[in-house]
Each structure stands twice: as C-alpha cells, then as structure tokens.
Amino acid sequence: MTNLVPLARRQFLSQSTSLTLSAATVGVLAGAPRLARAEGDPAKDTTILNVALGLEYEAIAAYQLGAQSGLLQKPVLETAVLFQSHHKGHRDALAATIQKMGGTPVAEKSLDDYAKALNAGMLKNQADVLALATRLELGATNAYLGVIPSFRDPALAKIAGRLAADETMHWTVLASSLGRPLPAAPLYFGA
Q1: Is the separation of the CB atoms in 105 and 53 below 8 Å?
Q2: 159, 30 in Cβ contact below 8 A?
Q3: Which DSSP letter does residue 165 get?
Q4: Which of 33, 61, 115, 142 sits a CA distance of 20 to 30 A from 126?
C-alpha cells in the first residue's frame, strides 16, 4: 500500500514532534489571542509555521487546480471552493502570526509549480481530483494531531485538536464523496 501522506507533510509531522509551538502561536492561530503567551522559542515556532504555511499554499493550489479543471460537478465544486476558503483563512492566520513573531512568511510558488509537484496532469476525472484532496487533507489532519503532545496546557491541546477536527471534517466529506467506507480500525488518524 502506498503512503498516502505526501513527503512535505510527513516532514512536517516529524518536525512537529521535535519542535514545540508556543502558546502564543497556537492562541493566535486558533483565534484565541487571550491564550497567547510569550513561551517557547519563536525561531522554532516560525520554522514550523512556515512549513505549515507552505502546506496551506499547496492545499489552496490543489483546490484551485481542481476547480479550474472542469472535472468537478457543481455540488462538488462548491464544496471544493468552500474548503479552499478554509485553507485561505489558515494561510492568512499563519502569515500574520509569522509576521507578528518577527519572521518572514515563506513565499508562495506559482500554480504551475504546484501543478507539477502534485502531478496535476494525471487528474482525468472528478474522482482523481477528490483523491488528491483527500490525501492532502489526511496529511493536514495528521500534522495538527502531531503537535498536540507538545503542549503542557490542556487548553492549547484542545485548540490543536479542534484544528485537527476541522481537517478531519474535510477528509470525511471528501472520502465519502469517493464512496470510501469509514475507517474500520480505531485510531486511524494521527498515525
């Protein structure tokens, strides 16, 4: 069985377990600035956030490629555009957080670069587009779940869990659209 998590997301998962996001970073990302505190190493946080920002750019591009492909039927296209808007919100929050922490957000690549990296030329039908998005959403879910153990404050772990839940919702909708069954085994996410 092929690994469904793209390399960049696997790298983020491995980095996220060795680097700890500060409470300030999670608080701002989760829209809860009252939880923001100056803890942790901002340089490590901005490194993690820039990896996450790069992944959000990738997700936005994937949904854009799907939307402009002409392969998606109207209800599926509407869902893809909605999920893309969620990722744009994540992008904006990540970039703002990186800047507030004194860092420089990583630059977005061209849509052509993402198309090549995602092998968009192989997208021949709606199921192909949905399968790509499903793989990317699973990677995002696992990335958020991967940072939860880094937090000592249960409120921060809860916020990271809520973010993972949002990505899991995307995955669930997409997998259902493909007619895939629910995971039969427990503890499917975060592995």
Answers
A1: yes
A2: yes
A3: H
A4: 142
